[in-house]
């Protein structure tokens, strides 16, 4: 028998946290975060890192769209795209490793009510890791597609763009939900109180 509670938390379908995982978010909504005295250096760094993923993901998406629409030639696009995609994929993978091995265990121990949320976030990381691998494969195909063969280039660009769009949509959902679970906990317990 399927656990419909868990289905509602699937990365590709969820629309935020259910009420049992919003206990701290309801007390500390996003509107209070910027001015809260417990928003320390680690929390600010975390949010800035997430914002970098949002911005770089959007930039990659925009550049791909411009190349597909003929606004930018494949050569200049590839020169701009390759190092930024490498940065995006590498930083994201490293960020998730640090969270899974260093931060999430501390947060799980700090509040048993939110353990299920951290299990969901770790599951997100697995799904995103798989999507990163597929995205990298599609990007490689795009980077080696012959510029002279416009049909092959178009197929490779479409294949990459479809996969990258799915990855970015999942990532944006994940980043928002991760912040909604973690930042209120930091505001409630302080960074020092959590041991970070």
Integer-rounded radius of gyration: 19 Å
Number of strands: 0
Globally, the shape reads: elongated
Percent range for helical residues?
Answer: over 70%
Q: CATH fold name, please? A: Four Helix Bundle (Hemerythrin (Met), subunit A)
Ends distance: 40 Å
For the report, how would you describe the main beta sheet? none
Q: What's the architecture, going by CATH?
A: Up-down Bundle
Mean pLDDT: 93
The total of helices stands at 7
Order of helices and strands: HHHHHHH
Q: CATH-wise, what's the superfamily?
A: nmb1532 protein domain like
Tell me about this structure.
The model has no long low-confidence stretch (mean pLDDT 93). This protein starts with a helix and ends with a helix. The radius of gyration is 19 Å and the shape is elongated. α3 packs antiparallel against α6. With 196 residues, the protein is mainly α. The protein is 76% helix and 0% strand. The chain contains seven helices and no strands. It has a single domain, classed as nmb1532 protein domain like (Four Helix Bundle (Hemerythrin (Met), subunit A)).
Which terms would index this structure?
single chain; 196 residues; mainly alpha; Four Helix Bundle (Hemerythrin (Met), subunit A)
Question: How do you describe this structure in short?
Answer:
The chain is mostly helical.
């Amino acid at each position: 028998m399927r656990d419909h509670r868990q289905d509602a938390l699937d990365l590709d379908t969820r629309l935020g946290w259910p009420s049992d995982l919003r206990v701290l978010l309801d007390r500390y909504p996003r509107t209070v975060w910027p001015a809260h005295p417990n928003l320390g250096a680690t929390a600010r760094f975390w949010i800035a890192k997430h914002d970098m993923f949002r911005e770089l993901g959007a930039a990659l998406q925009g550049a791909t769209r411009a190349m597909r629409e003929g606004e930018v030639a494949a050569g200049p696009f590839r020169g701009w795209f390759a190092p930024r995609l490498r940065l995006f994929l590498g930083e994201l993978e490293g960020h998730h490793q640090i969270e899974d091995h260093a931060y999430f265990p501390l947060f799980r121990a700090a509040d048993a009510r939110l353990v299920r949320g951290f299990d969901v976030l770790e599951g997100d990381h697995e799904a995103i890791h798989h999507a990163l691998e597929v995205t990298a494969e599609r990007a490689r195909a795009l980077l080696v597609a012959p510029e002279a063969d416009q049909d092959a280039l178009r197929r490779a660009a479409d294949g990459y763009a479809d996969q990258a769009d799915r990855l970015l949509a999942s990532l944006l959902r994940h980043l928002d939900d991760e912040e909604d679970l973690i930042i209120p906990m930091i505001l409630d317990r302080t960074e020092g109180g959590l041991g970070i």
